[in-house]
Design brief:
Blueprint: H1 11-21, E1 37-38, E2 43-45, H2 50-53, H3 63-70, H4 78-81, H5 96-111, E3 115-117, E4 123-130, E5 133-143, H6 144-148, E6 152-153, H7 160-173, E7 175-176, E8 180-184, H8 188-198, E9 204-207, E10 213-219, H9 222-233, E11 238-242, H10 244-259, E12 270-277, E13 283-284, E14 286-290, H11 298-305, E15 309-314, E16 325-330, E17 333-339, H12 354-367, E18 378-382, H13 386-395, E19 401-404, H14 410-418, E20 429-430, E21 441-442
Parallel strand pairs: 6-11, 8-12
Antiparallel strand pairs: 1-5, 2-3, 4-5, 4-10, 5-12, 7-21, 8-11, 9-10, 13-20, 14-18, 14-19, 15-17, 16-17, 16-19
Helix pairs in contact: 5-7, 7-10
Length: 444
């Protein structure tokens, strides 16, 4: 980007960006130096091309899985989000060649007219339909300043290596191609405006290979766009549901471009989000598996578990339907575990989570698993794979035992974020997932 493109537009904007860039990353202040959301000129599939383009998020598929999903689909967005699929199977996925391939593939899609760029900025309504479940949200450019100022709230730690990967991807393709999933608090007026737009003819409509339907409408009315921006501006906070690494990477890109002279008006000072009403989002269980019983026999392990849990055998798989209950699959049998009365009486928003209770009363004292983020003896299975996957991996001998979980509730997530706290790893699995390729935010 040239220095002219990043030239300051006014002294006021320059002072504003300087103030933002010197703020602590997790400041508790609620500042509003710029609008919380804004329209942007999206990169999106040309009319009729969305079925050819849309793809699963980059981080839910391995490279091998992405090759299979993209086979026979030359315009799949996996060629941009997982460009290693077009290179040698043994290539380092973080090689500069991989990021250059992503840009080459994106340029090809634009050159061939598979993707187009809107001539003017806009907001977009995005609806996901998965069976009977329907959720309708707003696609926008969210303020990086609001993220840095802790008005767009986080609940997870990020890994530097994963941030580095997303920074390189964003810079290589000069676009943010992976939307961040946000939740917004109760706002009936916003819900009504989104529903009104979605009553019209969609600009894109595609059903992915997993049966999930993705539908997009461009908000053509500038009056409606203005009303939506104003409605979001009065919200106290937004909540990151999924996409912490993408958010952190966007913040780093924005800071680097500010250092190069870009102002708050530059596209890099926004990041791509889809904001849904919090009551419409679905969190599925994030189940646990362990590789060994820490030297105990199965019988001795069950006896030890009974100190903190009421243990009841079950003739069918256990899928917990209330907090502080867990399923245990061990030696081909299911057991229902209920935390003994009094042990769950926690007021701390993190410590009362089921994932914290399982760690404190079982994983740590019995299995000596004290850092679920790094301990190689624990693994996780999230989403629709469900309890059948747990039984399969234990029965194969790969794992010694599995625990099915009651899903974390969105209200719990919001309370953790409001308290400026961090959830334990692998606490939430949101589904259905957003599609990559339906909307991207260009930075040039």
């Amino acid at each position: 980007m040239t220095s002219d493109a990043c030239a300051a537009t006014s002294a006021e904007r320059t002072r504003e960006v300087t103030a933002i860039s010197t703020m602590p990353a997790r400041s508790p202040l609620r500042i509003r130096p710029v609008s919380l959301i804004a329209p942007f000129p999206a990169l999106r599939p040309a009319p009729g091309r969305a079925p050819d383009v849309i793809a699963p998020p980059y981080d839910v598929l391995s490279s091998d899985e992405a090759r299979v999903r993209a086979a026979g689909r030359p315009w799949s967005f996996l060629h941009v989000s997982k460009p290693e699929i077009d290179l040698a199977p043994d290539i380092d996925v973080h090689s500069p060649i991989v990021y250059a391939k992503a840009r080459e593939n994106l340029d090809r899609m634009l050159r061939e007219g598979v993707l187009v760029r809107d001539a003017t900025p806009a907001l977009y309504v995005y609806r996901i339909t998965s069976g009977p479940h329907v959720q309708t949200g707003l696609v926008a450019g969210a303020s990086v300043a609001a993220y840095d100022g802790n008005r767009i709230l986080r609940h997870e730690l990020t890994r530097p290596d994963k941030e580095d990967d997303r920074v390189k991807q964003i810079e290589a393709v000069a676009a943010q191609t992976g939307p961040v999933l946000l939740a917004y608090p109760t706002a009936p007026a916003v819900d009504a405006m989104l529903a009104s737009v979605a009553a019209g003819t969609p600009d894109a409509d595609a059903t992915a290979d997993d049966g999930v339907r993705h539908t997009l409408w461009r908000v053509a009315s500038t009056e409606t766009q203005r009303a939506l921006c104003e409605a979001f501006d009065v919200m106290p906070s937004l909540y990151i549901a999924d996409g912490h690494h993408r958010s952190a990477a966007a913040s780093r890109v924005a800071a680097a471009r500010r250092d190069a002279g870009c102002t708050a008006d530059d596209p890099s000072q926004r990041f791509l989000v889809v904001a849904f009403p919090h009551h419409s989002l679905v969190i599925l269980p994030y189940n646990r598996l362990v590789k060994d019983l820490n030297g105990r026999s199965a019988a001795a392990f069950l006896e030890a578990v009974s100190a903190n849990f009421e243990v009841e055998s079950s003739g069918s798989p256990v899928e917990p339907d209330r907090p502080a209950t867990f399923g245990l699959y061990l030696t081909g049998k299911w057991f229902r575990l209920a935390l003994r009365a009094g042990l769950e009486a926690e007021t701390d928003p993190v410590e009362r989570l089921d994932v914290s209770l399982l760690a404190r009363y079982l994983l740590e004292p019995l299995l000596d698993i004290r850092d679920a983020r790094r301990d190689p003896r624990i693994d996780f299975v999230g989403g629709a794979r469900g309890v059948a996957e747990l039984a399969k991996r234990v029965d194969s001998g790969e794992m010694a035992a599995a625990f099915s979980m009651y899903p974390t509730q969105l209200d719990d997530l919001m309370q953790v974020a409001d308290a400026d706290r961090i959830m334990p790893p692998k606490s939430t699995w949101f589904e259905p997932k957003l599609a990559d390729g339906l909307v991207s935010l260009p930075l040039d």
